[in-house]
């Protein structure tokens, strides 16, 4: 069975915008200080949003679950009209652009011989342009 995997690569700026917008829309409390960056903790399945504090060694940290971060990136895709499958396994990875990659994988597309017959019937039913 064929598998379908889509990867959407968000750079650092796009990831920051998506995460902060998600927090605003979902009412996630953020400290009233400057945003300093984010860290994807793959081993904890979370994203840490870091904000400036009086002690530079201990920034304020807001934790988002991987589901929240995935929701933020899906929201960005909706804003940009990027189609995504509703079903499928979604997961996050760090990427080379200092951002986050959202991967969406469908385990199988369940291709059957009858799919070809249905596609052929639909194609033959289309009106032909006369030339």
Based on the model shown, name its key terms.
3 helices, 6 strands, 131 residues, three-stranded antiparallel β-sheet, alpha+beta
Describe it.
The protein has 131 residues and is α+β, with helices and mostly antiparallel strands. It has one domain. The protein has three helices and six strands; from the N terminus they run βαβββαββα. The strands form two sheets. Strands 1-6-5 form a three-stranded antiparallel beta sheet. A hairpin with a 5-residue loop joins β5 and β6 (100-106). α1 crosses α2. The longest helix is centred in the N-terminal third of the chain and has 15 residues, at 12-26.
In terms of topology, how is this protein built?
Blueprint: E1 4-10, H1 12-26, E2 35-41, E3 46-51, E4 60-65, H2 66-79, E5 89-94, E6 100-106, H3 113-125
Antiparallel strand pairs: 1-6, 2-3, 3-4, 5-6
């Amino acid at each position: 069975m064929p598998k379908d995997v889509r990867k959407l690569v968000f750079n650092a700026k796009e990831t920051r915008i998506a995460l902060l917008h998600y927090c605003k829309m979902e009412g996630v409390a953020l400290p009233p200080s400057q945003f300093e960056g984010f860290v994807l903790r793959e081993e904890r399945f979370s994203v840490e949003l870091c904000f400036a504090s009086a002690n530079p060694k201990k920034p304020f940290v807001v934790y988002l679950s991987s589901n929240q971060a995935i929701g933020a990136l899906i929201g960005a895709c909706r804003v940009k009209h990027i189609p995504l499958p509703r079903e499928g396994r979604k997961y996050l990875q760090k990427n080379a652009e200092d951002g986050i990659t959202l991967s969406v994988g469908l385990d199988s597309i369940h291709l059957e011989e009858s799919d070809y017959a249905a596609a052929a019937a639909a194609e033959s039913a289309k009106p032909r342009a006369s030339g």
